[in-house]
Amino acid sequence: MSTEFSTDLTAPRRFVRHAASPQMRLNVSRLVRLRTAFMVTIFLVLAIPGALLLFFLMPVEYQASATLQFLAKTPKILYDDSPRRLSANYEKYVATQVGLIGGPAVLQRTLEQPEIRKISWLADQKDPLDTLRRKLYVVNQRNTELVMVRFSAPERAVAQRILDTIIDQYVLLATDHAKTSGSERLGQLQKMSKETLDEMDRHRNRLTALYKDLGVGVEGLGSGQVSDMVVWHQSLGRATADRSTFEAQVRVLEDMAQDLRDWVGRFQKAPDKPIYAYDIEAMAAADPAVLALQGQLLVSEQNTGVLERLYNAVAPQRLVQQEAHDSLNVRLRETLQNARARALQSIIEKTDIRLHEARNRVEDAKQRESEFQTYISERTQQLVRASKQQIEIEDIQTRLADTQSRLKQIEERIYAIDVESNAPASFQVASRPTVSDEPLAGKRTQYILLAVLGSLLAGVSAGAWREIADQRVRDARDIAALTPLQVLASIPDACEENASIPKDAPVLLLHRPDSMLADEVRRVMTRIVYPPEGAGELRMCMVASPGRQDGRTSVACSLAVALGQANRRVLVVDLCSRAPRVERMFGLDPAEGLGEILIEGADPHPFQRATPCRNVWVIGPGHHGSALVNKLASREVMGLFEQMEQDYDHILLDPPPALLMSETKLLAPVVDGVLMVVAVDRTTLGMAGRCLQGLYEVGANVVGIVLNRVRTPRHIRESRSMEAPVPPRPSQPERDASQQA
Predict the structure, then answer these.
(1) Cβ neighbours around 172 below 10 Å, total
(2) pLDDT tens, 535-566?
(3) In this predicted model, what pLDDT tens digit does every residue of 123-166 receive, in sequence order?
(4) Is the distance from CB of 704 to CB of 553 less than 8 angstroms?
(5) How far apart are CA 679 and CA 708, in angstroms?
(6) Long-range Cβ contact pairs of 191-198 (< 8 A, separation 24 or more)
(7) Which CATH architecture has domain 2-17+483-729?
(8) Which pLDDT belongs to residue 685?
(9) pTM of the model
C-alpha cells in the first residue's frame, strides 16, 4: 500500500495554483483560445447591423463655404509717413465680427427673410434659430486676414441659399452700424451715462446716511449684537431665578418667625416646660450659669447622700443641707427658664435679621430683573429698527449694483461706437458661398467607426465575462495551469466512438480494442504497471473525482478490463454505498458485499464476484448503506485490503465524489496512489483545485490526472474508424469460456 510507494510526482500543497481560491481570475491565453469565436460572433452581430443602420439612417450633408477678408489699417501720425505696427484692437475687432456673424442678430435677420421661410427643411425644425447656430461654423484662420464661414444642410441649394443670406445680412448689419455710429447716438449714450451716474450718487448718499444713523457698518449688525442680546437674556434669567429663590427663602423665614412667636406664647404660659424645637433646650442646657448650678447641685446631692448615711431625718445637719439643696433646685429652675428665654429671643432676632436680608435680596433681584427687562426691550427695538434699515441698505445696494451694470453697458457701447468710428480694419467678401459636388461623409464615418469600436469592446467584454463565469475544464492546458501533475490520458466520449456499440465503457473496451478510448485507457494502465524510475508498482489504486457524473466509475472499470486483458488479476471495490454502479457496469445485479464483510465479519472470498471480463472481479458495497462509511477508517479495512493484495495483482477502489462524501479522504492515505478523473465541460477548475487540495491535506499520493469525455476532432475519429473495423461481439458461451480460463 502507500507505505511501499513514494514518487517525486507527489505535489506539495503549494502546487495547486489558485484553484481553491474563491476569486475568479481571467486567464488571457485561455480567453483567446476558447472565446475567440464567441467574441468574433458578438462583434459581427453588433458591428455589421450597427454600421449599416448608421450608414442608411444618418443623412448626408452638403457644406457651403464663403470667405471674408478683414483688411488691417496701418495707423499714421501727422507729418510722419513711416508705417506703424497694427493696432492692438485689430484682433478684438475681428473676434467681435466673428461672434456677430454667428450671433442671434444676424441669424434672426436671416430667418425673417421670405426666401428662408419657404425652406421646408428649416421650417420643420423645432427651433430654427438653434439649428442655424449648430450648422454654422465661423473661424478666423490664423496668421491671415481671412475668416472662413461654413454652413451644412441636407441639400446643396439649401446650404448655398442660407449661407448667401447670412453673408448678406451681416454686410447690411455692419453697414447699418457704420451709418448710425454718428454723434446723435453717441450724444444719447452720454446723456444716459450722466443720468446713471447721478442715480448712483443718490444711492451712495442714502447708504452713507443709513450707516451714520446706525452707527455701525452693515456687517456689524448681526452676530455681535445678537450675542450681546443672548448675554442680557441670560442675565435676566439669572435675576428671575434669584428672585424666585429669595422669595421662597422669605416665605420660609416668615413661617419660621410666626412659629417662634407661637413658642414665645407657649413659653410664657409654661416656662418650666422644655422647648426642643430649634435646639432651644440644647442651647439652654449649654448656658454657663446653668452648667455652674448643675455642678453645685451635683455636689449638694453628694453631700446630702453622705449626711443621710450619718444622720437621721430630723438632724439639724440634714435639715440645713436639704434646705440648701432645695434652694439650688429653685435657682437652677429659674436660671434654666432665663436661659430658654434668652435662646428663644436669640433665635427670633437671628430669624428677623435673615428675613430682612432675604427681603432685601428679593428687592434687589426685582430691581435687576426690571433693569434687564427694560434694557432688552430697548435693544430689541433698536435691532428691529436696525433690521429694517439693513433691509433698506441691501435693497439700495442691489439697485446700486444694477446701476453700475447699466453704466458699464453704456460705457461699452460708447467704446464700441468709438471703435467703429476708428475701426482698425475694413472688411470685404473675398469669395461668395460655393458648395462642393460631393456630400460630407466625415461625420457618418466617425459614427460608424465608433459603432465598430463599441462592438469590439462589447465582444471582448462578453468574452471576458463568459470566461470568468464559465470555469469548466476544457483540455489538458487548463490542468497544466492548475497543477504540475501529469495528464496521464485524455479519454474520449464513449458515444463518439460508434453509435451502434453500447455506451458502457467496459463493453466498448472489450468490443473496440482499437478505439481511441482503449488506447487512452491502456496509457493509464501503463502508468500503473510500469511506474517511473524509483517508484513501485501501484497495486492498490483509488480512482477519485471531484463531483458526480465525471465518469469515475467508467474509468475505473475500463482500467480494470485493460489490466485483466494484460493477464493481471484485478479486484474492483465499489465504495459508493449510496449509489453503487460498478456491479451494474459489468452486467451484475447488486448483491451483498463490503458492508457484510466489515460489519458482520463475514469471510470476504464468497463476496468477490466474477465478471464477464477475464481476470476481473468486483465487490459491491452491500446492503448496509451509510453504515459502511463508519467502518472505512477501522483496522478491519486495513487487514481486509492486505488480505486482498495477496489474492490479486491490483485492487481498484471506486469511492463517491471527493467533494461530496468523505470516503475518498478516509482511504486516500492508505492506498498506493490516487488517479483523479476530471470530466471535460463538467468539472470546474475550482472543483478540481479543491479536490486536489483536500487530497494533499490528508497525505494522499496523487499520481496523475485523467481527462474524461474529451471531444475528439471529427477528422481524427473518421480516420481511425477507417483504419480499424469493428470486430464482432462475442457470444455468451465464448465469454463464459474466457472467464473460466
Answers:
(1) 12
(2) 777 889 999 999 888 888 889 998 999 899 88
(3) 888 888 898 888 898 988 888 888 999 988 888 888 888 889 99
(4) no
(5) 5
(6) 192/410, 193/407, 193/410, 193/411, 193/414, 196/403, 196/406, 196/407, 196/410, 197/407
(7) 3-Layer(aba) Sandwich (3.40)
(8) 87
(9) 0.48
